[in-house]
Amino acid sequence: MNNFQIASKTFSHIRSRPQSGIIYDTKKLEKVSPNGLKMVIPGVGESNDLDKFVLKPSPNKFRTLSTRKTNIINDSSVTQSKTNHTEIVKNSPVVQDLSKKIPVNMTKDKDDLYAETVYLKDIINKLTQENYDLKAKMRFLNKNTERMQTVVQNVGGYLQQKYVADKQDLALMTKLGISENLLTITLKKQIKELRTMIKQQNEEIQNLKHDIKYTKIQELEKEINVFQEETLRLRTLLEQSQRNEQIIQMTHDFNQFEEKFYIQMQIINSLKQENSFYQGQISIEQEEKFKLQNQIDTDQKVLNKQKQVIDDLQQTLKDKLAYIDGLQQELDAYKDTNQNLIQKANKLDNNQLRIIGLVKIEQELRKELQQKTRDIEYLDKTTTELKQKLNEKSSMEAKIKDQLQEELKKLKLAYEELDEKYKHLLLINAQSRLKETAPSIQHKLAPTAATLNIKTQRPLNQNNTPDSINQDKNQQQQKFKVIKKDDVDHLGLELNYRLRTKKITLPDAMERYLFDNKNKKTGEIKLKEISERLQREPFLLIDEDSALLVARYLTEDNSQEFVVYNDQLAQSTTIVRSILQKLVGNFEIMTAEIETQKTKEITQVISKYKNSLKQYFDQLPSKYEGLLERKQIIETFEYMDIDLTPEQYDFLFLRLFSYSNNTQIFPYIRIFEIFQEIQIERIDSDKKKKSRKKDFKDQGDNKNKKVEIFTRRQSMELAN
Known about the structure:
- The strands form 5 sheets. Strands 1-4 form a two-stranded antiparallel sheet. Strands 2-3 form a two-stranded antiparallel sheet. Strands 5-7 form a two-stranded antiparallel ribbon.
- The radius of gyration is 54 Å and the shape is rod-shaped.
- It is mainly alpha-helical.
- It folds into 4 domains: 2-178, no CATH class; 252-436; 466-584, no CATH class; 592-675.
- Helices cover 73% and strands 4% of the residues.
- The longest helix has 125 residues, at 212-336.
- Keywords: Coiled coil.
């Protein structure tokens, strides 16, 4: 009976052990879309069946338990339960949600972070499944060890009792003197009796087994065991689905965060571009103000000179009038003494001729005086108009400057807010990554020229602490990708345009503004010095990163692929001259006549297509209102069959650069303001005014000479 109990106990242990699960290959995941197309995610399993992501019971666990006719469990019931289970799993909302939330467009060229998350999910699934399998095996082994320990203890106790009883029987028999033959006979009898008892018990057991209640109890026990295994398996499935839901939710949240982060970065970049654009506008307005101030000074000087000339002319006119009054007095005297001088006919004729000449001179002087007064009135009008225009322009400039400063303040505040949000988002991103990824799996990405900025931008309130200085030192020891000519071509064009607008040659700019006396003596210049001087006049690379790029290109060794950044790196001034000359290119400073000639040529071409060009420019898409790219303007001109030479295009963009402060984006409305027929007429009128002023000056000089000659003659005649 003890043996039977042990056997039934072990059988119940084996029956009630937890059902183990199998996770299928997850090297490639394929999903069937509603249209019937397959969406393949690389790095995940070969089959299309979504059941491969579900823990399934191994087929050998559903064993058919063979009993007699009445207590047999059908194989069909087991297989039916299996099929029902698979259908329930397939139709479950968890699996359907899994199939819905799998990304649709997944290719190898997707973002590295997304590929990394997929790879880590795969590893996590495998590790969790191995953990479950090992836990199940461990439970099974622990139960087996406990069972075997109990069996060993029972067998040991039974053998010990038997050994003690046999020893006692032998001792009694030796005491009583019973022979061994008698002992064997008695033992055989006992064995027969025991066998008969076993047969009787077996018959009773068989009778009990044939009983319907017993068979029902056995079936119920087996069903209970099957239900226990199913509950364990379903519990594991439920836990698996919950984990998958958490992972999907995390990926969804991460995607939303990624989209928000991308939008915030776009806003930051657009604000930076607007900020640089407004800074350029401010510098342009300042330059225009400086030009207008110079023009006003020159006009004031000319006006002062003209006033002085007018004063001199008025003084000469007063002198002439005084002289005419004297002559009139003399004429009156001659009239009074006319009666006394009748006898002197010859002298009288001469005096009459002299009077006629003086009258003619008086008439000419009066005409000249009227002309001078007209010129004075015209000059007064022009001066008042210029003063009014100057006052209006200065007031407009002050208003625009105030508006731009207010907008700049707003942009700075918005930029600071976005910077804080960006830092907060980066912190959240880092925390989420630390939670998702295992510490042993870390991919280090190599720095590139597009993603690295040499100068770390610190907040405004951060001082030069020892930590920041150490950070700068470590940063200087980092290796960065070398700067190529393609990276700084647009900056060379910007320097070209800027120097040409300021009428400064490149050798003169390098000699006066780039190299100081120390550099000329030593024959070397440092990277940091170049970067700082390129941000000043006349180069005006306002963006620090742009100035640093050009400085690195001029000083670093471009033959290597990666270089160690060092802001104290020195380079020969001759090498810097030659590289900068190649970067900026050769150009000549245009005279005023060449500029007017080119404006006339371009105006004659543009005036033919003015209206159609305006309509076409208005229809073109642009990032900023009223601004178009260089490529769009050239393509429009080619589309409208407007033939311009490369020199004319260069002059066109050079004139537009003074308004946009950018070599790639220009305000297209300024084309019609700069190159128009009124401009040509104004240039011609300016030329005519200059020639008239010159002629007027020459006439005045000639008249002054004539008056001087006449007065000398008169004085000589009077003296005679």
